[in-house]
Amino acid sequence: MMPSLYVVTIDGPAGAGKSTIARLLARRIGANYLDTGALYRALAFYLDASGIAPANGKNVAEALGGLVVSLQGGRVFVDSSDVTDKIRTPHIDAIVSRYAELPLLRASLLELQRSQAAEGPLVADGRDMGTVVFPKADLKIFLSATAEERARRRWKELAERGERTSFEEVLSQVIRRDGIDSSRALAPLRQAEDAVVLDTTALSIEEVLSRLSSLVEERLKERLNRGGRDV
Ligand code: DC
């Protein structure tokens, strides 16, 4: 195994290719993979199924106080329920941003996210990985792509899973979610100042992966030249 960086963060809007790329990059460099969107989706799923709307701050606070979100073998649990297979539906796509903007809910996931870096080298994807959760990450990537291309990818993924939605519907969801994720007061989607930005619109997965692998190698060389890690 090649020596790994401590933390690589991948942020960007929905459909930019973050999770596919982060998973493959993690495998290539021998790191663990953390999908933070799954954590927000798991809580949104659970609260919604319990009839607790995001606007109902008091009930959200009460519910969060008694819930434990955990990651076990690549699956996400809320208390003892494995919700992994229930969180990637158009319904959750439509509601998750409204939960993800709640400060209390974000705070409740912070420690769990940070603790993953103690398990070994990590590739983490989300919206605020490089800005809030891992501000000292060794390498920060910001992936982008046009809204049309991101909607096209998402629509294809849903169609492959047998979910029937029109392209226009998916596009308007992508634009709506971008708006909420970028404009919320706490930890909005934005590039970290020291992030490397990569527009994936015209790139294949393999092309993105090979660029990122090169960046990881460059950072490793820089670190070796500096004589070790400084995080
Ligand atoms: O990446 P995703 O589509 O699975 O993310 C689901 C939602 O969670 C998305 O609307 C943004 C939010 N999210 C967030 O606010 N912060 C993160 N680190 C990851 C996801």
Please render the helix and strand layout as text.
Layout: E1 7-11, H1 18-29, E2 32-35, H2 36-49, H3 57-65, E3 69-72, E4 75-78, E5 81-82, H4 90-100, H5 103-115, E6 122-126, H6 129-133, E7 139-144, H7 147-160, H8 167-183, E8 196-199, H9 205-226
Parallel strand pairs: 1-6, 1-7, 2-6, 7-8
Antiparallel strand pairs: 3-4, 4-5
Helix pairs in contact: 1-9, 2-4, 2-5, 4-8, 7-8
The structure holds 2'-deoxycytidine-5'-monophosphate.
Assembly type of the chains comes to: single chain
**Can you count the helices?**
9
Strand content: 5-15%
List bound small molecules.
2'-deoxycytidine-5'-monophosphate
Task: Explain what you see.
It is globular and about 55 Å long. It has helices at residues 18-29, 36-49, 57-65, 90-100, 103-115, 129-133, 147-160, 167-183, 205-226, and strands at residues 7-11, 32-35, 69-72, 75-78, 81-82, 122-126, 139-144, 196-199. The strands form two sheets. A five-stranded parallel beta sheet has the order 2-6-1-7-8. Strands 3-4-5 form a three-stranded antiparallel beta sheet, covered by helices on one side. It is built from nine helices and eight strands. 51% of the residues lie in helices and 15% in strands. It is of the alpha/beta class. Residues 14, 36-37, 40-41, 96-97, 100, 126-128, 177, 181 line the site of 2'-deoxycytidine-5'-monophosphate.
Give descriptors for this structure.
alpha/beta, Rossmann fold, about 230 residues, 8 strands, binds 2'-deoxycytidine-5'-monophosphate
